[in-house]
Amino acid sequence: QAYGREGDALDAALATLAETAVVQDGLAAWPGEIETLDGSAKGSESAYGTLTPSARVEGTALATRALLYARTHPELVAQGLELLTDSRDASGTWNAPQATLLALRTLLDALQGGDLSSESTVRVTVDEIAAQPVSLDAGHAGTVQVLTFDQLSKGYNDIVIQAEGDKVAYQAIGTYYLPWSQIAPTSPEEEEVSIEISYEPTSLHVGEIATATVGIMLNRQGSAPLTVLELGLPPGMDLLTSDLDELAAKGVIAHYEQRPGHVRVYVRDLSAEQPASFRYRLRARFPLSAKTQPTRAYDLANPQRPAVREPAQIEVVP
User: Fold this and answer.
1) How many of the other CB atoms lie within 10 Å of CB of 133?
2) How far, in Å, CA of 275 to CA of 272, rounded?
3) What is the DSSP string of 148-187?
């Protein structure tokens, strides 16, 4: 309990914080109306799950942490923690680096300040196929238990989660693959950024050089402090890194990293008014006909709506 003039101001701030919470379906969120310092766009639209805007995750984590430290509004704290748990992506993170950092700090603070003596048992079945029961005790309070069901039936599958005990948080994630022919083209309104990549020529001889041309633009107001491009590379072709070194030296790109199957390029301060474009070359090593890896682009602070482009066909003859 705080006393005096500073205590009154703190109590008033905590009361305002509680009043501004948006509670929906048992989840409490603090949606931001301004862009955060790391560039996360405001999250005023109604979105939960993996589509939760990064700014909403950041705001919810900070607000929940403040109420947690103040030991007030326990129901809102629990609902804020539920929102953070529900907002994780399939990789177990919160999409953007800053959102992930703040969410993890808040969850760890809640874990350290809570009662870890209780025990729980969770049983999961998918279409009456049961997994081994998971026991959650004080020794495993901060451990994520992963159960995988890879023999799903076509169509609907019934997932039943039964928890014996309390303080159990869970998330169900489904992944699937589609052929490119079944994926509808996306519009700029559906992507945070737009990217185009082309190769010329797409048919060449061993030892010859192909040029990749890349163009990227932000599809919203403001700017993206850092945009990530994952540019698919054709197998059997060498990336001429001297081109990317020169682009980095001129400030066209901020940095690049060559990885298996693609090259990751970072671009600073991208906007609709200031798009970016550049070229780099590839040299054919041996004859083959193959496709590149897919190309992806996303705003690092707002990665929920990436641009994805299908692989390109490259043919190399002797």
Assistant:
1) 11
2) 6
3) ----PPSS---EEEEEESS-------------GGGSPPPP
Which contiguous run of DSSP H or E holds residue 195? strand 193-200
Please say whether the beta carbons of 90 and 50 come within 8 A. Answer: yes
DSSP character for 131? P
Tokens of 79: 């609902």
Q: How far apart are CA 59 and CA 65, in angstroms?
A: 10
Compute the average pLDDT of residues 139-145: 66
Asked whether the beta carbons of 263 and 244 are under 8 A apart, the reply is: yes
**What is the distance between the alpha carbons of residues 281 and 304, in angstroms, rounded to a whole number?**
30
What's the predicted TM-score (pTM) here? Answer: 0.68
**Percent of the chain residues topping a pLDDT of 70:** 86
Give the β-pairing of 129-130 and 193-200. unpaired
Could you tell me how far CA 110 lies from the centroid of its own chain?
23
Q: List the end-to-end C-alpha distance of the chain, in Å, as a whole number.
A: 79
Run of H or E residues at 81: helix 74-86
**Those residues with Cβ within 8 angstroms of residue 66's Cβ, 6 or more apart along the chain or in another chain:** 14, 17
Q: What is the pLDDT of residues 63-85, one digit of tens each?
A: 999 999 888 899 999 999 988 88
In this predicted structure, the answer to whether residue 269 has a pLDDT above a threshold of 90 is: yes
Cβ atoms of 227 and 215 closer than 8 Å = no
Chain centroid offset of residue 57 CA: 11
d(CA 64, CA 73): 10
Q: Any residues with CB less than 8 A from the CB of 165 and at least 6 apart, and which?
A: 118, 119, 120, 121, 136
Cα(299)–Cα(307) distance, integer angstroms: 10
Pick from 2-11, 52-61, 232-241 the range whose average pLDDT is largest: 232-241
pLDDT of residue 44: 38
